[in-house]
Amino acid sequence: MKRAIYPGSFDPVTFGHLDVIRRSSKMCDELIVGVLNNNSKTPLFNVQNRVKMLEDVIQDIPNVKVIAFDGLLVDFAKKMNANVIIRGLRAVTDFEYELQMSQTNRVLDSEIETIFLCTTLEYSYLNSSTVKEVAFHGGDISKFVPEEIKSLVYQKVEELKENSNE
Ligand code: PNS
Prior knowledge:
Helix content is 45%, strand content 19%. It is globular. The model has no long low-confidence stretch (mean pLDDT 95). The protein has a 5-stranded parallel sheet with strand order 3-2-1-4-5, with helices on both faces. The termini are far apart. By secondary structure, the protein is an alpha/beta fold. It is built from 6 helices and 5 strands. The protein binds 4'-phosphopantetheine. 4'-phosphopantetheine binds next to strand 1 and helix 4.
């Protein structure tokens, strides 16, 4: 069985992520979306919420599972019995970081290969930070995230604003 991992922060999941999930799920028997539980970053959504949001939007794709992880990606991949890592490449600016990460992972575990998928042109500008920034300033994020995610992002941003006024 060919199992691949698509890792990321997904804070929140965007149409760009969904595009990569859909396309890469066709290239393997099972795709595991690995959601990083990263203590060093302060995400908008905690890892349980990020996993739940992803589960909600991938319901129609049969061979995808969403699992949270911490620690090294290669250790998670090994634990999951996956030897392929999928990453999306939006533009040339992504390349340096992605190359460095894939080379590091390869040195850490030479059995694990990274495959890059070029993001569909329509989403090549999109990232989760932009979504949060636009939402924070009251902009429309409907073109960036699915409807059910949109309301959760606005809700979370409002909570943050209320807490910072207290
Ligand atoms: O969505 P992101 O934030 O670009 O995803 C980055 C991610 C989660 C793929 C990367 O930070 C990662 O793999 N973190 C786990 C720690 C690790 O394995 N580091 C060594 C490789 S650089």
